[in-house]
Amino acid sequence: MGAVASCFNSVVSAITACFMAVVNAIVTVVKAIISGIVAIFYAIASVLTCGKVKRGGRGHTSAATGLREGPWKSGEKKQKQKKDKRQKKDKKQKYKLAKAFTPSPVD
Questions:
Q1: Which domain covers residue 4, as residue numbers?
Q2: Which residue stretches does the UniProt record annotate as biased composition, category Basic residues (predicted)?
């Protein structure tokens, strides 16, 4: 009788493992679809706003653990560098604009 119970236990365990694998696959596919939809909406928003839409806090998500991964500190550093570069560019444009509208001395 013990052999029958052991066999039954193994069959139930195998069915449960298969069911969990199927559920995990379905969840992964749904995550991929949602991620694709979000990427499409981001692209549309980027086109409509001429690239002024920012992706905030986006990191790589591991499929196995579901935890976010990635170098957050280096992302902040890159954002600061971009901001500084943009500010320098804005200053140059303001200087050119001011220079263009400054009257030249008449001889």
A1: 1-70
A2: 79-95
**CA neighbor of 54 nearest in space, from 77, 79, 29:** 79
Q: What is the DSSP string of 52-68?
A: ----TT--EE-TTT--E
User: Considering the entire predicted model, what is its pTM?
Assistant: 0.43
Looking at the fold, whether 65 and 28 belong to one and the same domain comes out as yes
In which residue are the tokens 């935890």 written? 67
pLDDT at 16: 94
pLDDT, tens digit (0-9, with 9 covering 90-100), for 18-35:
999 999 999 999 999 999
The gap from C-alpha 57 to its chain's centroid, in whole angstroms, comes to: 7
Is the predicted pLDDT of residue 40 greater than 80, yes or no?
Answer: yes
**Cα within 13 Å of Cα(63), Cβ side:** 10
Do 24 and 64 belong to one domain? yes
How many CA atoms within 13 Å lie on the side-chain side of 23? 6
Is 70 exceeded by the pLDDT of residue 64? no
Whether residue 6 is found in the same domain as residue 31: yes
